[in-house]
What we know:
- The protein is α+β, with helices and mostly antiparallel strands.
- The chain has a five-stranded antiparallel β-sheet with strand order 1-2-3-5-4.
- A hairpin with a 3-residue loop joins β1 and β2.
- The chain has a single domain (about 5-140), classed as HIT family, subunit A, CATH 3.30.428.
- It contains three helices and five strands; from the N terminus they run αβββαββα.
- It has helices at about 5-10, 55-75, 125-140; strands at about 20, 25-30, 40-45, 80-85, 100-105.
- The relative contact order is 0.22.
- Zinc ion (ZN) binds near residues 5 and 47.
Amino acid sequence: MSNDCVFCRILEHKIPSNIIYEDKNNLAFLDINPSAPGHTLIIPKKHKIRVEDLSIEEVRSLFSMLHLLLKPICEAMNAEATTIAINNGPESGQDIPHVHIHVIPRKINDGKGVSQVLLRASNFKTEDFNEIAAKIKEKIN
Ligand code: AMP
Ligand code: ZN
């Protein structure tokens, strides 16, 4: 845990988030500034900056959660596809130095090329986040 890491504070429930799913090693929650509705972040509970700083078991566990959540996220958001992204280290434009996988639901002709996909377009309200989190959670079993 790192005291000045936003994601560690989310893990400790010291700041609120819309949690989608949690297991022993990882947490998934909605991105506060989404590129599309249902934009989800999946993080390991260990504070590590880069994927290669995690053990292979931790990486397997993290990607298992990604695998588990892709279908529920798409179903809940009526998305046909996803863009999956990792800014792997501060020099890559990573704002929060704690490993996180972005999962961005995509629709055909949603007007985003690969360079625009991480641009934030929307101003969602708290109710929207709560509703989206509930929809995704409903699809996980
Ligand atoms: P990156 O630029 O890859 O480090 O992405 C960091 C992501 O964290 C951005 O998409 C932010 O919108 C998101 N973010 C920052 N603070 C929070 C927060 N408190 N809750 C949820 N997502 C956050
Ligand atoms: Zn952290």
